[in-house]
Records
---
Amino acid sequence: MKPDRFSFFFWAVLAAWLGGASAAEYAPPEAATGLGPAGRVQGRHGMVAAANPLAVKAGMAMLEAGGNAVDAAVAVQMVLNLVEPQSSGIGGGAFLLHYSKDGKISAFDGREVAPAADTPALFLDAKGRPLKFYDAVIGGRSVGVPGTLRMLEAAHRKYGKLPWATLFGPAIALCEQGFPVSPRLHALLLRDKFLPLQEKAKTYFYHADGSPRAVGEKLSNPELAGVFREIAKGGADAFYTGKIARDVVAAVRGQQKNPGLMTEADLSGYRAVERSPVCGNYRAYRLCGMPPPSSGGVAVLQILGMLSRFDMGSQPESLQAVHLMAEAERLAFADRDRYLADPDFESVPLSGLIDPGYLASRSALIRDERAMEKVYPGKPPGSARLKTEGGSAMEFHSTSQISVVDRWGNAVSMTTSIEDGFGSRVMVDGFLLNNELTDFSFDPEREGKPVANRVEPGKRPRSSMSPTFVFDEKGRLYAVLGSPGGPFIIDIVAKTLIAMIDWHLGMADAIALPNVGSIGGPVLLEKGTELEDLKFPLEKLGHEVRIMDLNSGVHGVERIPSGWEGGADPRREGIVLGY
């Protein structure tokens, strides 16, 4: 049967296969103690790693039907929209790195944009003071123009193999047949106090008595199935124009609290952007990541570049290694807050920030025996023309990572998000809308100067998403990875890379190591892990230390002699499948 002639029978069989998951299938094999990996799987030809078993199976179905990495990523994303709605979907945005078998790397920017009517004062109250985070999030004000579908369509048009409509089959089948509510989704519904305030979301996610859908309870979404059918038939235009676009605008503008200013013209005018990846070296490896408006690729390269003069030792996460990592991360985040924003609006000194000489000068500030008292942004080459100041913003952890390698050697690393858990909580036509505009700096000025990451019409908020490719000394694709985690994504990806390159761990073991790092302030140690023992020694070095939950969701694939091996983060519900 040819891939472009899938019958109703095929999708009925596939639906039964996909829908066969039980609640037990979602349980991580081990707690996140660093004592062992979850989801180590090998495959000779290719792999799919993502945050939900049903989504991974959908991606594998595309590969087995003759599709490639882009085809699989589209199918995975559509199923994630249904089964992991708190994290990503067509109401949000994403960054996608694509590696083709001829060696070309493409970086697709599907980041949301601010509506044309938004101003730098978007998140200020009547007295000109920044709003509290959730006062800004809930409702239409925080909703950026979604970018995921336009980006996926652009990537598919350039690199996809299967027909676009085919990629929506698994998600449509699951929408109509229903899927079992996972333990993670149930737990998040149980503690979210804002979602039940939205009538459509309340009706879908909760029972009449207000209790959340139970673990293992079958949940269907015929409204979303209808949306997927329209997009499968009409392409992304079916989302960005017509009825669906009108519904999105009505939902955003019609909120009683925090109505937004999005228009149909904002949606129809959205464009995904193909950018050049940002690349650099660490040891014998070459790494490529996402350029601005993501800060992830630059910051990861800065951290590793500053650490390259140090012997990170053979002992994973030793006191000295954690100290050095935290110091490099503090310096990288100072530069991030100062310089990184949407490059279409701000003059970002991109090459200067990853210049080896500049990174060597920044690294010289790191001392083996003592933490820096204060950390300031540097002055990279090309920064003199920058007239604005930086500005930090709140970023939360509702994000997901998709990593795929196909039989031809093509690969996708895609990080996708709606920002906070369940985004803005606004639900329309069966899917949730993002709150990505709260990734902008709330205060548009600092010390009388405009903040680089301030809100402006048509601007993309800065992100920390860090989809990453790693190439070995022979130039071969060695690893594909990324993670959710808000601004801590940068530290999580850096930790995983250091574990693989310096400590010679496989992907699954590197992912399972306890999370550690700094996002510019205290050293953060993952609660409930052996890293807690480092709190006092780090404080003796002069660090402020906090122990907290550091929930990541790394999904990655690495090259091994027999093909590929993948890893799924034991802190989430994802799996890896190979073929």
Note: Confidence is low (pLDDT under 50) at residues 1-13, 15-21, 26-39.
---
Amino acid sequence: MIRELPVRGRVARVARGAAWCAAVFVAGLAFAPWSTMAADAKPAADAGAEKKPDLELPPLPADKTIKQSVRVGGRTLSYEATVGTIPVRDAKGKKIADVVYTAYTVPGNDPHRPVTFAFNGGPGASSVYLNMGAIGPKRIQFGVDGDAPSDAAITQDNANTWLDMSDLVFIDPVGTGFSRSLEDEEHTKKDFYSTEADIKYLSRVVYDWLVKHGRLRAPKYVMGESYGGYRAPRIAYALQTQMGVGVNGLVMVSPYLDPAAIGDGDALSPLPWMINLPSMTAGHLESQGKLTPAAMADVETYVRTQFVTDFLAGRSDPGAINRMVQKVSAYTGLDPALVAKLDGRVDIGTFLRETHRSEKKIGSVYDSNVTAFDPFPGSAERQSGDPILDALLAPTTSAMVDFITREVGWKTDAHYEALSYAVNKAWDRGDADDKPVADLRKAIANDPNMKVLIVHGYNDLSCPFYTSRLIIDQLPSFGQAQRVKLSIYPGGHMFYSRSTSAAAFKADAATLFGAK
């Protein structure tokens, strides 16, 4: 999904007009554990001396593989589905966590067959959303207007799976899915729930999976959604420079790329308002049946030019606010009187509520045209959850647990954490910075063959597409105009829930993979 987990505490931020992302929790420095091929190779005598983990938990099951098939591209593709674990160890070799992954591989031992590692975000989201919503061989419907928590958790063949182009490995970070820490709360937070530790141990998990399955010669791709989009370039750079593993390509889905660009709505910078307005406009245009690239080019030009000038002029130009009010109300479809009260600065919360107020409904931050009834329509402030998040948790969790425990037969009594609010709350936020953009630049510069695909849905207000547009326009060319490609599709944060957008996404990915 999603990406993923919404930022707790963001409600107040939305009220101030921030451009925040569903996966915006960033972390400060922390010691990072390492995950373990070398440690597993220790002599037997040393293994017996290993310290016990802090928590005495029942062991997780051994890796389990089953054979399945999917209809894709007019043919039947046979594959193996595996649920397994990668241990994480500290610097002294003590096992401190189990990371659970789900892998789909096509038999044949082709050393040139690509493998893609996929991460969702949150922090606190498992990989189920990219797995069963976007690119895995089976999918369950979610993220579209009308979806409900009571929808049947039944999967179907995914016509837009990437399995015909690449093997797929979906990794659940510690605290999500069935992945778990074996340390106490304090050490868990230090070793896993911060930005630096997160990147380091997950990079090692990717390395360990490649070694465990003999795939170091394969072309490698890293994919991340939302906060996973923050992870992806940083993991790629860590693999290059720390793990000794080259990365052929990056795919960032609705990414949270630049924390430094996000303001609280009260700052002098026009960036938060510039970033949000195009996605608000897209939502309004789509509701009118008028969403086109040409219509979106108009608002994008406006926010780069007259909007910035009028915003910064403020009261020094008596006509500036009036011009903003007229343009912003026209783009968003909101009442000019309301926009005038806000001095032309429409925050996300106001847009989502006022756009659907006549129906007594609320729009989702992940797709403003996905709505739910407002349980308290007379309240001055919103008192409900998000329409997409509230609808997707039950069916996605049930579908994933049913697949793992019943179909694959990987049995555990643990609870599957599709969206862990506890992880999200515990995350060390640190200071806002642009490390993902900096690491993206360095990773691209290091490897002249690496390519990048960044994709968004037009209607997403959790991670608006215009952030990526501005970032890409500031990148060096790196010798090729298409080293970094931006594609925007109809839909929201999980645009892939729409079959036409999912098909367009796969077509762009095929170009990245060099597939026919």
Note: Residues 38 and 93 are 9 Å apart (CA to CA).
---
Amino acid sequence: MRFKSAKTGPYQVLAVSGTNTISFAISADKKGTKGLLGFAVERSDPEGKQDFYAVGFKVFPSLIPKPDDKTRVKTSRHPVQSFVWDDFTARPDHKYEYVFHPLKGTPTELDRSGEPVAIRVQTEPLFSSLEHDIFFNRGVASSQAYTREFGNRKPSELKGAKQAAALEWLSRQLDDALLKFIANAAKGDTLLCCFYEFRYQPVAEALKEALDRGVDVRLIVDAKNNKPKDKKGKVQDPFPRTENLAMIKKVGLPKANIFLRQARTNAIQHNKFMVLLKGKQKKPAEVWTGSTNISDGGIHGQTNVGHWVRDAETAGKFQAYWELLKADPGGRDGDDKPTVSKRNKDLRTAVEMILAPPASWPKVKKGITPIFSPRSGTAVLDMYAHMVDEADDTSCITLAFGINKTFKDLLKDNKADSHIGFFLLEKEDKPNPRAKDPFVRLNAKNNIYEAFGSFIAEPLYQWAKETNTRFLQLNSHVSYIHSKFLLKDPLGTDPIVVTGSANFSDASTKENDENMLVIRGNQRVADIYFTEFNRLFYHYYFRSVQERTRKMLSAAEKKKQDQKSLFLDETDGWLATYKPGSLKQKRVDMFKRMKGFTDPWTGPSFRLPGGPPL
């Protein structure tokens, strides 16, 4: 949901809320910025009666010259020096009132006479009976937050309640949602499942329990004998076939209910979906999809999303796709080339007949459009690229395997005054010496900003070294960014969200078994995806900048950078970073252009201007 405060003096606060995250921006005129040291942020929870000042980590050096990893300060004394701020600790389906207090003066004698600005917000429910429910895991195992809570230790090294707490912190109820979808199937219902990786025992056991209570559970798994090689060229056990079949055997799922996807060994069965059919009539009802593999790393490690859809038409299309895949279509080992070609063509034709995709993104209808792969040509990928390139205001995309050439070709002529784009990557976009085409780097000149999976490799701010996702060993292929979603104009009134299993690549379009949802005009869906993207992007953007720049700095320059990251400015000098054309100012302007506001909830107001004791 989207909210804005009344204009109070020189300030106005704007906010967009998801389920657990609320993102704020503060608009201020020149009168409000002169001498401004920052904002004290106060949160009131009318239901829980929890009134408190938000805490921070940056401090005024004259007050705390030597902070350490245990330093926590209230923003009432050490304010937020930013016009954008996020609360990652909100509860789903909850009402809050925030008060932003402008502070001036000096660190030792703060001037609190400025009129505070109050804004009321409400978060979205995590579990509902609405058309869409969306579940993001934490996706930031590479963080000082994990280190503070659980130390530099893998979840497997923790014991009892501490281990459970670590897994819950990492999962952020993504696993609960998976299990709840399965539990939602009653006796006489049918669950059609289709998974690339199937090796997370709690989900496997939940499907066996569903089968035992009378649910018709049918499961397609990737079982291709693909003979992968390690870095030294040694042939490994087929992945994920070996572990998938071992888990099926371990929990006792009957062979009659299992359908092995073995054809087309050079392409992967990359789906991660379930379809719920109700009753003896097997009426399509609900779909679980998204980027989350049924694995420990998928749920607790890399960034992932699970998307629960309650729509009969969408479920019917997924049912048709499942029925097609269960026959294991496509060319097989041992077929001659003409036979392989014909079988693969027949598969693509059958997939395309389930639902023809829109000819272009303006043709995308309101509501939900499912798109399945493999299919002939790259028309769908081209459509996604045009969504990013032709956004009116903002585009966001997550990319686990680099930026496809189609996107670069369209975006490379964008200018600094084009719409703003945010790319969240698994790895830094670097030249490929084997590529035939010249390398194109998208950057601020194209109004494109990139962040990539990274962690703070050195004990910055005199703090403890943070845990690395790779160190936790939750994933072997993709450590950081595994989600696959795209947002076109998410803060407008006609947003488009693309989400599912497919990476934005040629292979995911033409070769792999994949599914995507294109959701148009649903602000609630866009707000949840945007706030989670915002959370992830700026977590990794900071680390990306550190990783990219520190390699080129001298020891003295590193120390200066660390000091800047650690301490607040004791004057209004921090405002210089908000000059026109800067990323920081662009972020504020993006919120100022936001549309589709919700009326705030009513009720007794938080006490203004005093509030709880400082």
Note: The first strand starts at residue 2 and ends at 4.
